[in-house]
Amino acid sequence: MNGKEVILGVTGGIAAYKSAELVRLLMEDDILVKVAMTKSATKFVTPLTFEALSGESVIHDMFGQEGTAIDHIQWGQESDLIIIAPATANFIGKMAHGIGDDFLSTCVLAATAKILVCPSMNTRMFENPAVQENLDLLKKRGFIIMEPGQGALACGTEGPGRLPEPDEILQQARKLLSDQDLSGLKILITAGPTTEPIDPVRYISNRSSGKMGYALARAATLRGADVILVSGPTDLNPPPGLNFCQVITAEDMRRSVFENRSGCDIIIKAAAVSDYRPRDHAAQKIKKGPESLSLELVKNPDILTELGSTIEEFPAVLVGFAAETEDLVANAEKKLKSKNLDMIVANDVSSKDAGFETDTNRVKIIYSDGRVDDSPLMTKDKVADLVLDRAKAIREAGLEG
Ligand code: PMT
């Protein structure tokens, strides 16, 4: 999100303290954050808190010394997004009826940026027809309204009215700040390891954390695609806004992939599927016994090979990953050909900063026409965008040809 600018408008509600966390999260995403507060918001949290977190002056007085005379015009026209969080019933009313009586409300009136409104108030206030009609008016005018969370509120009531969690607001902001260039595409992504049971307490698996596959799923969702994430067991939370299918074994993953493949435009297999599984799965825990114990393994189905051999029935751009510890390009090229792929993303998993478990990856992308793209060490989020760019280009070239 480097280079993006967000104005965070904080209005006077108890949830204003959560906006401090939102500033931190936005900044972690390399977003420049400028904060404007209403006078009542400063009663809940001081401008100094936001100044310290954002590193920028906070404007809370139209006629104060913090900014210039035309900041209220420039801020909303030069930024990419305005987030009003928390948005009180009073401020929602002002926005709906064109009232500009302080810095933030005049900034909203003059804004050309998208505006995300995150209501937060007592349940009775939120359900009041006046507030609901004001929200409807704003929706009609193109404001994006987040549904408030449900639960126990600071005022002692239960119901809708909680400010959505900062992380949910961040996800929505990321989406609004991203180009929707994958909108209309259905993309199936696999992630994580598969685990193959030996008995009720033991299994065979591998070191995949799911980070690479989840980064792909998150990026594709933010870019507007309709995403199905088929994931083996991981410690990660599924990114919001996609269809999530939890699987355990390679057989489960195969079933889920084939159930969901119809209508997919792009399929990306980042999962590390166990090539073998124990022939027998003991019903009870295997007891300690002789000095050595042999485990007979049988081959698992190769999901990607099956997809590649039936691609004409279900046309989609087919992308594999290759986890290699030697002869990276030569081994990946063999997989590209034998599995009938459009491209393969090869990573050297013996490296400390790439492959399994890391937040970064270094990949070579190999295409079916023999071209090889070499990329430097990048975050898995950036690798994900690169892989999606390339898969999209292959799809577009296929449609033209
Ligand atoms: O999850 P992380 O910790 O972030 O790590 C990321 C990663 C290293 C797992 C990922 O970048 C990666 O390389 N994924 C593929 C791992 C792998 O299984 O590679 P492979 O070379 O064994 O398999 C080649 C391709 O065939 C893969 O797309 C794999 O999903 C697919 N395959 C393999 C075996 C099998 N039985 N069925 C398959 O579909």
From TrEMBL:
Binds 1 FMN per subunit. Residues 187-401 are annotated as: Phosphopantothenate--cysteine ligase. CTP binds at residues 275, 285, 301-304, 321, 335, 339. Its cofactor is Mg(2+); FMN. Residues 1-186 are annotated as: Phosphopantothenoylcysteine decarboxylase. It comes from the Bacteria. GO terms for biological process: coenzyme A biosynthetic process; pantothenate catabolic process. It catalyses: N-[(R)-4-phosphopantothenoyl]-L-cysteine + H(+) = (R)-4'-phosphopantetheine + CO2; (R)-4'-phosphopantothenate + L-cysteine + CTP = N-[(R)-4-phosphopantothenoyl]-L-cysteine + CMP + diphosphate + H(+). InterPro entries: CoaB-like_sf, CoaBC, DNA/pantothenate-metab_flavo_C, Flavin_trans-like, Flavoprotein. Residues 182-392 form the DNA/pantothenate metabolism flavoprotein C-terminal domain. Keywords: Decarboxylase, Flavoprotein, FMN, Ligase, Lyase, Magnesium, Metal-binding, Multifunctional enzyme. Its EC number is 4.1.1.36, 6.3.2.5. SUPFAM superfamilies: CoaB-like, Homo-oligomeric flavin-containing Cys decarboxylases, HFCD. The active site is at residue 155. Residues 4-175 form the Flavoprotein domain. GO terms for molecular function: FMN binding; metal ion binding; phosphopantothenate--cysteine ligase activity; phosphopantothenoylcysteine decarboxylase activity. Catalyzes two sequential steps in the biosynthesis of coenzyme A. In the first step cysteine is conjugated to 4'-phosphopantothenate to form 4-phosphopantothenoylcysteine. In the second step the latter compound is decarboxylated to form 4'-phosphopantotheine. Catalyzes two steps in the biosynthesis of coenzyme A. In the first step cysteine is conjugated to 4'-phosphopantothenate to form 4-phosphopantothenoylcysteine, in the latter compound is decarboxylated to form 4'-phosphopantotheine. In the C-terminal section; belongs to the PPC synthetase family. In the N-terminal section; belongs to the HFCD (homo-oligomeric flavin containing Cys decarboxylase) superfamily. This is Coenzyme A biosynthesis bifunctional protein CoaBC. It comes from Candidatus Desulfacyla euxinica. The lineage of its organism: Bacteria, Deltaproteobacteria, Candidatus Desulfacyla.
